[in-house]
Structures are given as C-alpha cells and as structure tokens.
C-alpha cells in the first residue's frame, strides 16, 4: 500500500485509522486532487481504483438474502484481464464491510462471476459488455468498469478520468434494478447518469 500509506490517513502499521464515512470522504477528496500525470499513470490509476472498489463495499446495501450467514464474505470480483495486480488484494486484506470479511476473486467468464457482490468488468471484455450486463440482469451485483460507455449500457458505476483526476458516475436506475441501495454519501460525490445518456 505504498501509494496511500504515505498519506498516513489510510493505514498506519497495517491498521485502518479511519472508519466508515470518513474513510471514503478523505480517500475521495485525496483522489479528487490527485494529478495522475505526475504518477506512473497505469499503475497508480488502478491503485486509486482499487481503493474506490473497497470504499464502494462500505456504502452499498445488498438484500439480506445475498448473504446466507452473518459471516458470509463480501466478494469483489474482476472479470477478464486483471489491471490491479496484487494491489486490490492488498487494499482489502484484513478489512471488513459491515462486519463481513472481504475476498477477491478473478473470473474468466460471466458464468463464474454470478456469486460476487461487486464486479469490476475489465477492458478486455469490451466486445461482450452488453451480454455481460444482460447475463447479470437478475443478480444483486454492483457492476463497475472504466469503459467509456459502461453506464450508458446499464452498468452501475463507471470510473472516469477528467483533467488527470479520477471521478465516477452512477446509473441509479441500474442500481435500483439490481436491488442495491447506494448511500447518499456516495451519491453526493458522483455524477448521476441514465442508461443511454453516459
């Protein structure tokens, strides 16, 4: 966690020093001011996006039947080529979301990915994004990607880069269709978009 540990507000000695809403607000404020041009862009960009994925797990509520037991883990999946490397695993190691442990899974196809709660859809799946989203239509999965037209096609969260900073857009109707409740704290930081209007 070299990228964020230097800020000293994210982790200290391997322990979280902030919780809940403050963690995401500080992380997003920090990321909002991050000049990606000053970093090794590809690596640092996905380090920031890994932190966003972790924080999304704190500010989304899934239907209770998604988790059969109190300690059933919340799974963050990556579909297709993994742009995060080990950094996503490092970001969630030892962390919990609403008392649940977090685990990371990598998937080669959409059939494997139907039991996760957050799914990052990689650029390698761009030709199949419409089929992927159609295949998840009845699933309670928070779909996330940085593909340009992702939210327009029905994905829930799209990462965007503007002026060398990372922002995100949320398709609120897509979230409702997946029976997911997104915290107002997260919505206030997002651009709200509609299907067909990404």
Helix and strand layout, with pairings?
Elements: H1 2-5, E1 11-12, E2 15-16, H2 20-32, H3 41-58, E3 60-61, E4 74-79, H4 87-92, E5 96-97, E6 100-107, E7 118-121, H5 129-135, E8 142-145, E9 157-162, E10 165-171, H6 172-177, E11 181-182, H7 184-187, E12 191-193
Parallel strand pairs: 4-6, 4-7, 7-8, 8-9, 10-12
Antiparallel strand pairs: 1-2, 3-11, 5-6, 9-10
Helix pairs in contact: 2-3
Structure description:
The protein has 198 residues and is of the alpha/beta class. The chain has one domain (2-193): Response regulator (Rossmann fold), CATH 3.40.50.2300. The chain has helices at 2-5, 20-32, 41-58, 87-92, 129-135, 172-177, 184-187, and strands at 11-12, 15-16, 60-61, 74-79, 96-97, 100-107, 118-121, 142-145, 157-162, 165-171, 181-182, 191-193. The longest helix is centred in the N-terminal third of the chain and has 18 residues, at 41-58. The N and C termini lie far apart (32 Å).
Question: Notable features of this structure?
Answer:
198 residues; alpha/beta; Rossmann fold; 8-stranded mixed β-sheet; two-stranded antiparallel sheet; 7 helices; globular; disordered N terminus
Oligomer: single chain
Q: For this structure, what is the CATH homologous superfamily?
A: Response regulator
Low-confidence residue ranges: 1-22, 32-39
Record the strand order, biggest sheet.
5-6-4-7-8-9-10-12
Shape: globular
CATH structural fold name: Rossmann fold
Number of helices: 7
Spell the H/E element sequence. HEEHHEEHEEEHEEEHEHE
Q: How many structural domains can be distinguished in the coordinates?
A: 1
Q: Which CATH-level-2 architecture?
A: 3-Layer(aba) Sandwich
- Main beta-sheet annotation: 8 strands, mixed
Strand runs, count: 12
Which class best fits the helix and strand makeup? alpha/beta
CA(first)-CA(last) distance: 32 Å
What's the rounded overall pLDDT mean?
83
- Rounded to an integer, what's the Rg over CA atoms? 16 Å
The CATH class label is: Alpha Beta
Q: Into which percentage range does the β-strand content fall?
A: 15-25%
Percentage of residues assigned to helices: 25-40%
């Amino acid at each position: 966690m070299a990228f964020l540990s230097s800020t000293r507000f994210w982790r200290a000695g391997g322990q979280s020093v902030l919780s809940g809403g403050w963690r995401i607000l500080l992380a997003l404020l920090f990321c909002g001011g991050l000049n990606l041009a000053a970093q090794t862009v590809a690596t640092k960009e996905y380090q920031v996006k890994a932190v966003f994925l972790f924080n999304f797990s704190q500010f989304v509520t899934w239907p209770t039947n998604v988790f059969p037991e109190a300690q059933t883990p919340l799974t963050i999946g990556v579909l297709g080529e993994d742009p995060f490397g080990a950094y996503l695993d490092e970001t969630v190691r030892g962390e919990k979301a609403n008392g649940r442990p977090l685990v990371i899974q990598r998937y080669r196809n959409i059939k494997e990915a139907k039991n996760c709660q957050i799914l990052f859809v990689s650029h390698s799946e761009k030709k199949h994004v419409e089929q992927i989203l159609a295949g998840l239509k009845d699933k309670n999965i928070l779909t996330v990607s940085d593909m340009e037209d992702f939210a327009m096609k029905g994905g829930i969260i799209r990462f965007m880069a503007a002026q060398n900073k990372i922002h995100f857009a949320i398709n609120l109707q897509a979230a409702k269709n997946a029976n997911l409740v997104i915290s107002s704290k997260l919505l206030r930081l997002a651009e709200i978009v509609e299907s067909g209007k990404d």
